Amino acid sequence: MKSRTLIAAAVLAAMGLGTTGGAGAKDKKDGDSASVKAARDFDKNPFPSTYRAYPSHPTLITGVTVFDGKGAQIDNAAVLLRDGKIAAIGGALADMDVPSDAVRIDGTGKFITPGIIDVHSHLGVYPSPAVQGHSDGNEMTSPTTPEVWAEHSVWPHDPGFSRALANGGVTSLEILPGSGNLIGGRSVVLKNVYSRTVQGMKFPGAPYGLKMACGENPKRVYGERNQMPSTRMGNFAVDRATWIKAKEYRAKRDAGKLEERSLAMETLAGVLDGDIRVQNHCYRADEMAQVLDMAKEAGYKVSAFHHAVEAYKIGDLLKAGDVCSAVWADWWGFKMEAYDAVPENAGLLYKAGACVIIHSDDENGIQRLNQEAAKAQGSARRAGIEIPDGEVIRWITFNAAKAIGIEKMTGSIEAGKMGDVVLWNGNPLSTYSRPEKVWIDGALLYDALDPKRRPVSDFELGQPGEGDVK
User: Which of 50, 105, 150, 433 could make an S-S bridge to 199, C-beta 3.0–4.6 Å?
Assistant: First the structure.
């Protein structure tokens, strides 16, 4: 019994959840009914979105080819934006209630897609310039830090936001903590607009995510410190013990017996409640399969595996679990767990009927997600897997919105959804195409033909080359 007690104490210490202190520890002075009430009745949204859409004007784009984000391609179509929403889409203008003062744009030879969405970005938490003073994405002081929130590190004036908008047509993105910890903290979903505060960018109504990681990163970071975890089995032991504590916390909460608030446990209980989505950094297929088993044991669902270079090996399992794979087109080999990658990864997942997403994890890659998706499509074609252009666009629009939990509001060209739309000067899956105009909630925020319609961060004002978009 003594050895089991020592092992349990070691695991809890590795999580920063010791038996005599730390998060969730009971303070005997606060065991009265007032503290129980305070632990139970708290504001679950203490930092609400203050986002307000920029002013918009009714806009009609005609003669354009539409990729609707759900797989369809509509030729010679018209799209009407009004009151910040997609008001109508179709081929017959007579069926549209077009305001007399609407701006009319000839889209002949051009293409429209939903705004591009990146499910895995570190803009704002690892902003440009990439200096130590800006490095705020990894709270690597404990293997589990569910109490930290990415939004409290986001610098809203990161110049990377405007590059993603202008060069990549990115209108929404999920900002994640890094992958140094097993549990890295909460993510935040942002609208890609400039604001003085991160709350002014927060996507209204978007759920939080929880960043988790498996594999080499956590075991390397903490193994080098001679602490647990230093192996993959240590990773899972710490994870499982953490979820046990979270389930105990949740049970006490539901029974009205909590005696002290725990920011860490509130986040994990939110995952168990289904309110917070798990976004799991994971490379190897065997580990992803084990994580799915652990999630079943603990009682939560994985929304998406990120990076997932070996996802092609378990497409059937991912489809069965309705788990998305956010992957690169061809990044591989930069560490051992990234070695067994194939450029047909996305194509094989598509063939298996699984949810595919192309993500960036990079301030440069986010500017060309359309090209990365096209590269993955080309690799699949060379392997004999034909994927229609409309389905490939889904990988960077609707599927991304689904993984984040905002698909009812954006991610596809449908009447009533947010007017987050990109007009491309050619097929967006062509190397030679780029965004011509980008609307967010119906407001024209970028126009390649108007040098003044290019957002510039406060940080860049007065800098050499001020306002340049490169």
Answer: 50
